[in-house]
Design brief:
By secondary structure, the protein is α/β, with parallel strands linked by helices. It contains 23 helices and 20 strands.
C-alpha cells in the first residue's frame, strides 16, 4: 500500500458524476494483478488491458472483478450499474451485468493517478437506458477508423448508443448485395460494419442503423428511379428535396424489405430507424396514380399517406424481429402502434409522442451542429416538465449570444402548433436522449472540434441526476480522451493561423443556429416560408478547411476571464492587443479579429480609467455581432466582466 498524496472527493474525476461517491480515507493503492470472476472473461480482460495501467510486479492487492451476466450484444434492458470499493484491504468492482463492469473500468481509468488508485466507495447507475450520439456519414463520409475513435470517446463518457444515419439525399453508405448500384462511391461494406458492431459491443455500445425514408431518398432514386413518383437527379446541395418514394407501388415495399433484411443481418440491435422526417409531398400531390390510390384507400392527405407507408414499413421491420424507430414526423392518428419516436422538433414533440403511447428518445436541445455552447445543451433535461422545456427554449430568444439568430429560432416555435393526437390508453416512456451531429458542415478532419467540447455535457445529463452534477468547471473534470482530441483540434487550428495568433483566434466562435448552413438569403426565405427555391452557401463540394471549420463552437479560452482581477485582466488585454497583426490571417477572419482588437482596446480604456465601465460595456455589446461567419465572443465576455 502507498499512502500517496491526499486524495479527496474534490479532485476525483469520475465522469459522468457517479450516483454516489464517498471517500473511505485519504490514500491510494496499486493493484497487483486482476482477478476476473464472471462469464465471457475475454471482453472484460480486453477492457482491463485497454483502460488500466497495472504492473503485476507491484506489491499490493489484486483488483477483484465480479459479475454474473453477459451477452453477445448490448441490450437496452441490460443492468448497467456497478459498485466500486477501494480501501486498505483491497479493491473490488462488482456488477450484475458485464456492461456495468465496463462502465466501472472506465471510472477506474479516470481515477487512476501516478500514485495509484484513490480509496473510494462508488455506487453508480445511469438515469436513462438510452444515451446516444447520432452521426451523419450520409452527407460527408466518415471512415471506419474515425467511427472507432468516436466509439472510444463514447465509452469514456459512458454513452451507449451510436446511431448511424446511413442514407440521405446526398449519399447511400451501405453496400447492398441486392442493389449494388445504390451505394455511393464511399460506402461501408457489410463486413466493415459487422466489425464496427463488434468493436462497439466490446465497449458496451449498441449501434442503431438508419435508412431514411420515404423522403431524403434522392440517392436511392438516382440508382433506382422506378421507386419514385417523379424524376430525381443526383444532388450536391443541402436542404429538403422533393424526391420521395412512391407509397402506391408494391415494388417499393419489396425493395425496402430486401434492404432492411440486409441491414438487420449486419446490425444485431433490436431497433431499426426508418427516418420519416421532412417529407416534401409535392410529388405525391401531383401524381395521378397516387391520387387514385389515396382515394381507393381513404387517405385524406399526404400525412395519411405517409402514415400508410409507415404502417407497411413497420410490418416489414416486425417481420425481421426488430422494433421501428422514426423521427417525430411519424406521429399521426393512423401511425403504427408500438413505434418508438425520436423527438427533434422542439420541446413539445416529446409529450406528443408520449401522449400517443410511444416510447421516446429526446434529441431536441441536443443538436450539436447548431454551434450552441455546452450550457445550453445541459439545460434540456429529458425528464423536465414540458412547460419547463418550453421556457428554456423561450429563454434563448433573450440570450444575447443568440440575438443575431433570434428571429430564425422563433420560426421553429411553429412546431408547437402541430395538432395533438388522440391519447393512448398507456403513456409512453422517455428512454433517454441522443445528441445529433448532422454532417453538412462536418467532415472527418473537423469532427473533433464539433463533437468533443459539448458532448460531455449531454452525456453527463443522461447519466447523472441533475442535482448531483458538480457546479465546478466541467472541462477540469473531462476524461483525458477529450483533452487529447481537443489538443489535436487546436493543432489543426494553429496550422491555419500560426502559433502566435492562435490565442487571439481562439477568442472567436462560429455564428449560431443554422446561420452558417442557410446563409442570409435562405435564412430570410425560411422565416418567410419560401425556403425551398433558395440556394444555400454550402454544398458537398464546399471544402471545410477554413478557420471557422476548426473553431470550437464555444471558446474555452474565455472561461478564465471571470476569475481575473483587474490587474490580470489589464495585462491580458494589453498582451492580446499587441498580437493583432492581421496580415498573416486568412481574409475571412480579418474582420472579426479587427472587431476583437477594437473591443480589447475599449476594455483596456475602462480598466485604465479612461472610459467608464458602463460606457465600455455598452460599446462592447454593440460590437458583439456577426463578422461574416464569426462571432467576436470575447466582447460579450468582457462586457459581462466589466459590469
Amino acid at each position: 500500500m502507498h499512502p500517496g498524496r491526499n486524495v479527496t472527493l474534490a479532485n476525483m474525476t469520475a465522469f459522468p458524476n457517479p450516483a454516489h461517491m464517498g471517500s473511505v480515507d485519504k490514500g491510494t493503492t496499486r493493484f497487483q494483478g486482476v482477478s476476473l470472476q464472471g462469464p465471457d472473461n475475454n471482453v472484460v480482460a480486453s477492457a482491463v488491458s485497454r483502460l488500466l495501467t497495472i504492473d503485476p510486479t507491484t506489491t499490493g492487492k489484486p483488483l477483484d472483478i465480479r459479475w454474473e451476466n453477459s451477452a453477445d450484444w448490448p441490450g437496452i434492458d441490460d443492468d448497467e450499474s456497478y459498485t466500486l470499493a477501494i480501501d486498505e484491504k483491497g479493491a473490488t468492482l462488482t456488477a450484475s451485468h458485464q456492461r456495468g463492469i465496463l462502465h466501472g473500468l472506465v471510472t477506474l481509468a479516470q481515477l487512476q493517478t501516478p500514485d495509484g488508485f484513490p480509496y473510494c466507495q462508488i455506487e453508480d447507475r445511469p438515469r436513462f437506458p438510452w444515451r446516444g450520439l447520432m452521426l451523419d456519414p450520409a452527407r460527408r463520409f466518415l471512415p471506419i477508423s474515425l467511427l472507432e475513435q468516436v466509439l472510444d470517446g463514447m465509452a469514456w463518457l459512458k454513452l451507449n448508443v451510436l446511431h448511424l444515419h446511413l442514407s440521405d439525399d446526398q449519399g447511400f453508405r451501405f453496400r447492398s448485395s441486392h442493389y449494388p448500384n445504390i451505394a455511393s462511391a464511399d460506402a461501408y461494406s457489410a463486413d466493415e460494419l459487422r466489425q464496427l458492431v463488434t468493436y462497439a459491443a466490446r465497449r458496451g455500445i449498441r449501434i442503431v442503423p438508419e435508412l431514411d425514408m420515404p423522403g431524403h431518398v434522392t440517392s436511392w432514386l438516382t440508382a433506382c428511379p422506378e421507386w419514385g413518383a417523379g424524376e430525381a437527379k443526383p444532388t450536391r446541395r443541402f436542404g429538403v428535396h422533393p424526391g420521395c418514394l412512391n407509397p402506391a407501388d408494391e415494388r417499393v415495399y419489396d425493395a425496402i424489405r430486401n434492404l432492411l433484411a440486409e441491414v438487420a443481418e449486419v446490425f444485431p440491435d433490436p431497433y431499426l430507424h426508418i427516418g420519416g422526417d421532412e417529407v416534401h409531398s409535392r410529388w405525391w400531390e401531383e401524381n395521378a396514380d397516387i391520387s387514385a390510390f389515396m382515394a381507393v384507400n381513404g387517405l385524406a392527405d399526404s400525412g395519411a399517406l405517409q402514415a400508410y407507408f409507415n404502417r407497411r414499413v413497420d410490418a416489414i421491420v416486425r417481420e425481421l424481429g426488430k422494433r421501428t424507430l422514426g423521427w417525430d414526423e411519424v406521429l399521426h392518428a393512423d401511425m403504427p402502434r408500438g413505434i418508438t419516436v425520436q423527438a427533434w422538433r422542439g420541446a413539445t414533440a416529446r409529450d406528443r409522442a408520449l401522449a400517443a403511447g410511444c416510447d421516446c428518445i429526446v434529441s431536441s436541445g441536443f443538436y450539436l451542429d447548431l454551434f450552441y455552447p455546452a450550457d445550453v445543451h445541459g439545460r434540456y433535461d429529458p425528464a423536465l416538465a414540458e412547460a419547463d422545456l418550453v421556457a428554456r427554449e423561450d429563454a434563448l430568444l433573450t440570450d444575447h449570444r443568440f440575438a443575431h439568430v433570434a428571429e430564425g429560432m422563433r420560426w421553429t416555435h411553429a412546431w408547437r402548433q402541430v395538432a395533438e393526437l388522440p391519447p393512448a390508453p398507456a403513456r409512453g416512456r422517455v428512454l433517454g436522449g441522443e445528441a445529433c451531429l448532422w454532417g453538412e458542415l462536418v467532415d472527418a478532419a473537423c469532427l473533433p472540434s464539433r463533437l468533443w467540447s459539448r458532448l460531455p455535457a449531454v452525456a453527463e445529463l443522461l447519466w447523472s441526476a441533475p442535482e448531483s452534477i458538480p457546479d465546478a468547471d466541467m472541462p477540469a473534470r473531462w476524461p483525458r480522451f477529450i483533452h487529447e482530441r481537443l489538443a489535436e483540434q487546436r493543432t489543426a487550428l494553429a496550422s491555419l493561423v500560426g502559433d502566435d495568433l492562435l490565442p487571439l483566434v481562439e477568442l472567436c466562435e462560429p455564428v449560431k443556429w443554422y446561420a452558417r448552413l442557410l446563409g442570409d438569403v435562405a435564412l430570410a426565405a425560411r422565416i418567410e416560408g419560401r425556403e425551398m427555391p433558395q440556394a444555400r452557401p454550402y454544398t458537398l463540394d464546399t471544402p471545410l478547411n477554413r478557420v471557422v471549420d476548426f473553431l470550437l463552437p464555444e471558446s474555452l479560452a474565455l472561461r478564465a476571464i471571470a476569475a481575473l482581477d483587474d490587474d490580470a485582466l489589464r495585462h491580458w488585454c494589453a498582451r492580446l492587443i499587441g498580437n493583432t497583426t492581421t496580415a498573416a490571417l486568412p481574409a475571412d477572419i480579418q474582420g472579426v479579429i479587427g472587431a476583437l482588437r477594437e473591443g480589447l482596446g475599449i476594455a483596456l480604456d475602462a480598466l485604465n480609467g479612461q472610459l467608464s465601465r458602463e460606457d465600455a460595456r455598452q460599446r462592447l455589446m454593440e460590437r458583439y455581432r456577426p463578422c461574416g461567419e464569426y462571432m467576436p465572443a470575447a466582447l460579450l465576455t468582457l462586457a459581462k466582466r466589466l459590469t
